[in-house]
UniProtKB/TrEMBL annotation:
Similarity remark: Belongs to the helicase family.
Sorted UniProt keywords: ATP-binding, DNA damage, DNA recombination, DNA repair, Helicase, Hydrolase, Nucleotide-binding
Top EC group: isomerase
Catalytic reaction list: ATP + H2O = ADP + phosphate + H(+)
Protein name: ATP-dependent DNA helicase
One biological process term in Gene Ontology: telomere maintenance
Organism listed in the record: Araneus ventricosus (Orbweaver spider)
A molecular function GO annotation: ATP binding
Amino acid sequence: MTHVHAFLAVDRLLQDLTKCKEPFGGKVILLGGDFRQVLPVILRGSRTLTVASSLKKHALWLKFHKLYLTKNMRALESERDFGAWLSDIGEKKSGSTIQLPLQCYPSIQDPIHQLYSDIDFSSVTPQGL
């Protein structure tokens, strides 16, 4: 993980550029990962110093709006099959030709309807767009 000073530098830079005193200049910052598994690397630093250098231990962390995943995507059967398929490719068990599964190909359906399936396009007019 990145040292908290790097986050503070980006925060200050964005505040200066936008002339806005909100965290990160009011811009959306998206972070991902498991903070329990990734700590910043502090050369010759103690355990206490390493933990104290993480973003989660800084006051800036309290200003983040946190969203948590509710579904373990790795536990889905289709994802396990896909992971096994990738492992087979990595270990060269699939031969010289790689066959992509059908779900890797884009759908032939109209991409707008595929992306926006919740919109009833029969009631949409050009003026309404």
